[in-house]
Amino acid sequence: MQNQGTNIFRLVTLLADSALLLALFALIGYWRFDDLRIANPEYYNYYLQLLVLTVVSWYAAGRWSGIFSYTSGLEQRNVTVNVLRAALAQFAMLAIIVVGLKGYYYSRVFLATYFSLLYGIAWLYRMVLVHYLRSQMAKGKWQRTYVLAGSHATAEALNQLTELRPELGWSYQGPFDGKPGAVDELICVHAPGTSEYETAANFALNAGMRFRFLPDMGPNYAGHMILENLEGIPLFSQRREPLSNRSNAFVKRIFDVLMSLSLLTAVGLWLFPFLALVLLISGAGWPFFKQRREGLSGKPFTVLKFKSMNDLGGSNALQRWMRKTGLDELPQLFNVLFGHMSMVGPRPHTAGDGATYAASVASYKIRYWAKPGLTGLAQARGLRGGGAAARPQMLEERIRADVYYIEHWSLVLDARIIVETALRTLFAPSTLHSK
Predict the structure, then answer these.
(1) Cβ of 227: how many Cβ atoms within 10 Å?
(2) Within a domain: residue 434?
(3) Which residues fall within 8 angstroms of residue 166, CB to CB, at 6 or more apart?
(4) Which domain holds residue 185?
C-alpha cells in the first residue's frame, strides 16, 4: 500500500544513509589516523575494502530488515526494531568477512566509534522522519483515496479505521457508483467469481485504477487476520507470531546466549555459591532443586532452582524472601544457556498447573508457541505466582500478557521487560495470590 509518503521515506533514507556511510568513514578516519594514504598506504587499502564491505552489507541488511520501507502504521518502535535487526545482520556479515581479511589491521577505536555513530544517527533521523510523515498524513496530506464496491462488516471496520487514523494515509471517498473519478483505489468486497466482482474489476482495469479485494472476516476478527500465501493460495491466520520467523528466532537466541553468559559470569560466579552456602547454613538442606516443567510446544524439560521449600511444603524466612523476589529462579540461567528456555517468555508451569489453567483460560496453550522465559511481560507487570491461591481475574490477566508478548515480540520489548523485571524485583515485588 504505497503513497507519496512511502516514496519520500525511501528516497530520504537511501540518500541520507549513503551520505552518512561515506562522511562518517572519512571524518572518523581523519580523526583517528590523519592522512592514512601518506602514513601507511597498505592500511589505507585495507580501510577502502572495509568501506566497500560496509556499504554493501548495510544495504543488504537494510533491505532484509525493512529500514528503507515505510508501511501503513509504521511507528517509532518499529523503526527501532528494524534498525536493531539491520545492525545485527550487518555485524554478523562483517564479522565473518573481516576475519577472513585479517581484521587485526583495523583499529578497535575506529570500528567502535564509526558503527556506534552510524547506527545511532541512522536510527535518529528515521525516528524524526516517521514522526513527520505521520503528522503530515494526519493533516490530510499524501492520502491514498479509495471507494468501496459493496459492503460488509470488515469494510465498515476499514472505513472506521481510516477515518479515526488518517495518519495511516488512506481516505474513504464513498461507495463505488460505476462512474470514473479521481480516486486511487477501488476496493471490492464481493466474492471473486460473482458478476459484481467482475464488473468492479473490469471497471478498475479500464479506468487505470488499482484494484483490491477485501474479504469478509466478520466484526470480531476485522483487523486481526494475517494473510499468508501458499503457492498462490491465500491463507489467513488469527494471530501474529514473529518468532515463527527463523531470523527472528535466531536473533532472540543470540540475545539469550549473550545475556545468560554475561549474567552467569558477572553475577552467578559469586552469588550462586553465596546463596547456596546461606541456604545450607539456614537448615534448608541441599540448596538446589530440580523440577519438570512444560516448555516449547508443551514438551517437558527440567528446570534448576534454589530450594525454596522443604519436603513438607514449609519454608524458612530466607526461602520465603527468595521466592518473593524471584531469586530462587536464577539458576534457570543455565536452562537459558542450554536452549531449554529464553531470557524472556511465558513462565513455565508444571503439567498439573498447566492443565488447571488451560481449563479456565481458553487462550492458555498459545503460551506453548514460544520458549518459556526466565521472566516475562506478566512478571514485569507484577503478575507472579499461581497455584490454588491465585486470583482467577489476575491469572487471566497474566495469560493475556503472555499471549500479547508472543504476538508482539521484539528485541526492544525483551530488553524493556528485563529492565522492568529488575526494577520491580528491587522495589515492588508482587503476586497473583490473595493478600
Answers:
(1) 9
(2) no
(3) 137, 138, 139, 140, 143
(4) 144-238
Report helix angle 317-325 to 269-281, nearest 10: 150
| 134 shares its domain with 215 | no
Using alpha carbons, select from 310, 376, 312, 319 the residue that is nearest to residue 343: 376
> Could you tell me what percent of the chain has a pLDDT over 70?
89
Regarding whether 358 and 417 lie in a shared domain, the answer is: yes
Write the DSSP string, 194-259.
Answer: SHHHHHHHHHHHHHT-EEEE-----TTTTTT-EEEEETTEEEEESS--GGGSHHHHHHHHHHHHHH
Is residue 425 scored above 80 in pLDDT? no
Q: Which three cell numbers stand for residue 222?
A: 476485522
Query: Checking phi first, is residue 179 left (phi over 0); if not, alpha (psi -120 to 50) or beta?
Result: beta
- Nearest CA to 128 out of 253, 248, 8 is that of 8
Over range 30-39, report the average pLDDT.
74
Residues 255 and 403 in one domain: yes
pLDDT of 116-164, one tens digit each? 999 999 999 999 998 888 888 888 888 889 999 999 988 988 898 889 8
- pLDDT score of 78: 82
CATH code assigned at 231: 3.40.50
- Three-class HEC string of 56-83: HHHHHHHHHHCCCCCCCCCCHHHHHHHH
Identify any residues that bridge with 211 across adjacent strands, giving them in sequence order. 186
Query: pLDDT class for 100, splitting at 50, 70, 90?
Result: low
End-to-end Cα, the chain, rounded Å: 51
CA–CA–CA angle 31, 59, 46 (5° rounding): 40
pLDDT the model gives residue 434: 41
Cell reading at 229: 500465501
Q: Tell me what the mean pLDDT of segment 378-394 comes to.
A: 72
Residue 291 has a CB neighbour count (10 Å cut-off) of 11
Instruction: Give the pLDDT of residue 418.
Output: 92
Residue 413 inside a domain? The answer is yes
Domain match, 70 and 120 both: yes
Q: Kindly state whether residues 132 and 148 are assigned to the same domain.
A: no
For residue 158, give the 3-state DSSP assignment: helix
Residue 148, CA distances (Å) to 158, 163, 169, 187, 219 in order: 10, 14, 16, 5, 17
